[in-house]
Fold Nicotinamidase-related amidase.
Amino acid sequence: MENTFKTFLTLGLILISMITMNAQKQKMEHTALIIIDVQNDYFPGGKMTLEKSEQAAENARSILDYFRKNNLPVIHVQHISTNDGATFFLPGTEGAEINPLVLPREDEKVLVKHFPNSFRETDLLNYLQSKKIKNLVIAGMMTDVCVESTTRAAFDFGFTNTIIGDATATRNRELNGEVIKAEEVQRSFLAGISALGNLYARLINTDELLK
């Protein structure tokens, strides 16, 4: 009798697990992850170090693991600088390489861009449409440049966007001789992109996505 109870209990737990996994997959249907410019130059020792880049990349890695576990599409965006006067992400340099924390697998899409907007002069839109993607989960760097411009462009193309705030990062800026701290820049741009009832993007953190 005891063994029978244990067997039913085990089967029940397996069934619950399968139902939960199926619900998660349905929730993320037609959804892809885009990881933008998590490249070595943004990390300590790089040519354009960001504030809390390592923490943001760790969170991006957790999200990447979630998408891989659930067999969901992943797009890695890599910026290669081709403009005159560029000082980082230079072609053929270690700094331009994608950081090991989010290193792409062979079966994952890697898209090279030369402008902040990941859609500009790339095949990103065609690729997403070919995969019937309607929803984007966005992480990466820099919050107020490539992440923002890509998110706004995605909205214009009709995608529903979610930004993982603690999986993004930026650096100090300067305005009229005054230094604007990275934390303030980060908060302001995330607040702006999610304003007006999440018009351009819904803003959540890593833990909320992984629930």
